[in-house]
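Problem 12. The chain below contains 797 residues. Write out its predicted structure in token notation.
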Amino acid sequence: MPVLRRALALSCVSALGLATAVSLAPAAHAASPDLVVNQVYGGGGNSGAPYASDYVELFNRSTNAVDLTGWTVQYWSASGTTAQKTPLTGSIGAGGRFLVKEADGANTSAQPLPTPDATGTIPMAATGGRVAIVNPAGTVVDLLGWGAATASEGAPAGATNNSTAVFRSNACIDTDNNAADFTTGTPTPQNSTTAPVDCSGATPPPAGTPATIAQIQGAAHISPMKGQQVTDVKGVVIARNSGGFWMQSTTPDNDPATSEGVYVYTRTAPAAAVGDAVSVNATVTEFRPGGTSGTDNLTTTELTTPTVTVTSSGNPLPAPVVIGQDRIAPQQNVESGDPGSVENTGVPFDPTVDAIDFDESMEGMRVALSDARAVGPTNLKYGETAVVPGQNVTATQSPRGGVLYGSYSQPNSMRLILDDALVPAGTIGTANVGDVYRGQTVGVLDYAFSNFRVMVTQAAPVQSAGLQREVTAAAADGQLAMSTFNVENLAPSDPDTKYQRLATQIVRNLQAPDIIALEEIQDNSGAADDGTVDSTTTSDKLIAAITAAGGPAYQARWVNPENDKDGGQPGGNIRQVFIFRTDRGVSFVDKPGGTATTATTVVGTGDKTTLSVSPGRIDPTNSAWSNSRKPLVGQFRWNGKSVFVIANHFNSKGGDDPLFGRWQQPQRSSETQRNAQAQVVRSFVDSLLKADAGANVAVVGDLNDFEFSKTADILVGSGTTALTDLPRTLPANDRYTYIYEGNSQVLDHILMSPSLVRGFSSGATYAYDIVHTNSEFADQDSDHDPQVVRVPVQATR
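Solution.
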């Protein structure tokens, strides 16, 4: 949440002041009269680096030489508390430069620096940090903070990378605002042999330009006044947090594309109160949530290093814009173009067409939602609920109140996140999907964690829609019930209540299926990264809980993974596990030899088709499974026939561009590995069907991809051996097993071979059900819904 992140930055600055002899709070002195940091490069010797070493370039902007005896260059990481120092010797002439070489990198093909004037050993970060020039008295003469630096003069300068340096736009000018004074670009290190510069005629930029909030925000994602000093910015304080306040103009312009609100970053708790009319002099900056690790995020426009004058108090606040009534977001269209970055100059900005522009056009303003409907359950840990307006929502909705993510061109672009960071915990009621915040919910529109969010200041009460967990039908005699269920990092250390509730879901809501493929079973020590890989304790504890809940005595089969080779929570060693009940005629064909690295193969033909090892893993050393769960395959017998079940947990969607991120259209980089994984599994299915065209094959599990995805298409295949992806057989508004940020979507699948679905088209007794027991509920036992299919005996061989 932005409030917590900004508060954390503040606490880091305070801790730094206590831990070091030199305070790195924004400089209180006038601009440095002589020595300044002119250029810093921290990517030296990294991959793609033009130079082999990190460096700091100093400049003397005065008309007199400076003796460097006793001076130091000091470096801190972006949020570090311990300085690394390089002592200086010699002198810098008037208008001269001084090159300080620091640590070398491993890239020996990068060119060396020009001859340095001083040499240190500091390894600096490529993306951000803090560099200070400190005189013999221990006083910071000049400070540069860049990237995600928690201390700087004014606002930090922009982030760098392996191929870019941060440098002063005009070496002679120091305004004590890093964001205004510095830019990033190709490194150009210069030493004391460089011809001196005469700074006697240099004049600093004007004190600032009078501006309105609308002029500062502009009709764009990046302020047209970024980096500029602005004065006499007027508005009334509409909300505040521990690091600043939001202000909104009371004299708006006539352009709905330009926001009338902006955040003023004071670093410490602001003196201005809600309802105060203020006039602000400040620097316009763009804050990117997450810093260098949040490069997919949009920025928010801020006023930094402000001087705030309160002109009156107790003023009425501007009326909120009621989203869904006063203004209606474009539906199912985040960005219609393909700009790369929406922040690029010249990208069309049209709030009437693109939802990402619609939300941006109200950044920092008071907004309201009337009868907001929850389309995702409240995240109890973070106090967040995904909602849509109570009016004018035309996207495909589920019968239970959610909004469907039905294709890449149909995102739920009207959703917003209600965030409780500005109000006491519990002020915003807990909601399940379909519940309504009855009345008007008011707050400030902000952005963080790849989503626009309403920082709630006035909460409406929650009216329950009475959502109940679904219960599926029990399998009839002659039906084989198969299920898949991601139980979300189940570990022995989880409370007994989790096991009891999961067991109740299996016994009551799923009606105790014959075969269940479980995903995310952790090892016996849970997330402790101690080398343990066996999961007997975990599965035994769940099976015991099922029996205690009145269910059958399940048996379990799995293959232990290699330690820390399958991704997921470090040390947890998650894997898929089969549990099955024998009281209804199901048996498991045990063939020993299955190990973490042993590839299971198909043996025999016709009704003699079998597996080389069972349970086993499919091609586990294939690069498609790098740092990802390997598929588990097992051979079952039921009513005298073999059923081959392949349990999967494909790699996650982590790393994909967010729907409301700066990169449009979003790139789904994680698909590449899932597509490769799907091809490996499909090839194994083909080998089974080649050996026995009538083989009963079920491909199940958490595929981490949608029913309309290429991943699913690869698994389905084509022609006479095509599998049926059961989520595709449901009505469009019931296709969801997971809810992510207000988008109901399919991630979990059951696919079946032709012999298993033979009765489907002929109307034989057959049922497939996504059993909605988790994804819609705030008190969920897992973040995934399980699903079950009941297959008639005549559909098997």
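Discussion. The longest strand covers residues 229-241. Students who got a different answer should revisit the alignment rule from Section 12.3.
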